[in-house]
Amino acid sequence: MNAIVFDQKLRFVTDYADPVPGEGEVLVAVRLAGICATDLEITRGYMGFRGVPGHEFVGTVIKGPRAWRDKRVVAEINCVCGQCDMCLRGLSSHCRHRSVVGIQGRDGAFADMLVVPERNLHEVPEAVSDEQAVFIEPLAAAYQVIRQCPIERRMRVAVIGSGRLGLLVAQVIKTCGCQLQVIGRNPLTLEFCEKKGIQGTPVSELVPRGDRDVVVECSGSPEGFDLAVRLLRPRGTLVLKSTYAGDAPLNLAPVVVNEILVLGSRCGPFPEAIQALARREVDVESMISRRLPLSKGVEAFELAADSRNIKVLLKPG
Ligand SMILES: [Zn+2]
Ligand SMILES: [Zn+2]
């Protein structure tokens, strides 16, 4: 089959072995897939991943139990054992033996087909298009923020980073009705915020006053952490979405002095994301900058790294 493969270098191949579903797994034909920051990190060595990247996708089940066959689906990305202490405690996204679609120990969606566990599947309702559905995984990660840190109307909240994830997190938090500001560097994405009725502030114009109740850090850069700490009031909450690569030096003293609560946040609930898209509470379509065939995947990665583009999608076939 056709696939984008990363093995020290990213390339498009036409002779990648067709995936074969194991027990409890289904074979999915990819309809559309999205490139995110994690994929770009993978090409810089993140997780030491080798194989087919891609974890944001919508597809059709072509092999598996009859109940799923021909269904349009998305899939949660953590593939879990169901038996370890984390799984038994209901914390299966932290399974001790997990593999992660297109990120860790398992091929992903930048291919004609991929294999996922049946238990990971969610059917996509008719009201949600393929172009929306491809955002369900990252949107679920955005919903995880308000699941871990409930936001009330009276709160003052800032999102640092106006990239792909920041824009989704901001739209989700906006539904809470709080006072919200997005802080970023990219005029294009800050303008997107303003169009959605969210205050977008260039980081260069920002004067931190130490008065935010909650700051969500989505910038991916250690400077975002420093800024978040300066924005927060004492006893405020910092929700950390960025995985800082390498050994970035962070100044933790103000976290202690101001008794800041730091919450790490990763994958989130698919049903909330699906519902929000079906009800059109979150706009993802206007985040799509480019659509390319899978055969142009290498070029698509370059476009996704360019700040003039927000979301770049890949279409097999
Ligand atoms: Zn992603
Ligand atoms: Zn487990």
Sheet of most strands: 7 strands, mixed
Indicate the CATH class of the largest domain. Answer: Alpha Beta
What's the CATH topology label of the largest domain? Quinone Oxidoreductase, Chain A, domain 1
Oligomer: single chain
Helix content: 10-25%
Shape: globular
Strand content: 25-35%
| Helix run count | 10
Order of helices and strands: EEEHEEEHEEEHHEHEHEEHEHEHEHE
Give the rounded overall mean pLDDT: 96
Broad structural category: alpha/beta
Features:
single chain, 317 residues, alpha/beta, Quinone Oxidoreductase, Chain A, domain 1, Rossmann fold, 2 domains, 7-stranded mixed β-sheet, 28% strand
Descriptive notes:
This protein is α/β, with parallel strands linked by helices and 317 residues long. It folds into two domains: 3-135 and 284-315, Medium-chain alcohol dehydrogenases, catalytic domain (Quinone Oxidoreductase, Chain A, domain 1); 139-264, NAD(P)-binding Rossmann-like Domain (Rossmann fold). It is 25% helix and 28% strand. It is built from ten helices and 17 strands. It has helices spanning 37-42, 85-88, 130-133, 136-148, 164-174, 187-195, 222-231, 253-257, 270-278, 297-304; strands at 3-6, 10-13, 25-35, 56-63, 72-75, 78-79, 99-100, 113-117, 121-123, 156-160, 179-184, 199-202, 212-217, 232-240, 261-264, 288-293, 311-315. Strands 3, 4, 5, 8, 9, 16 and 17 form a seven-stranded mixed beta sheet that branches. The chain is globular, with a radius of gyration of 19 Å. It binds zinc ion (ZN) (2 copies). Residues 36, 38, 55-56, 138 line the site of one zinc ion (ZN).
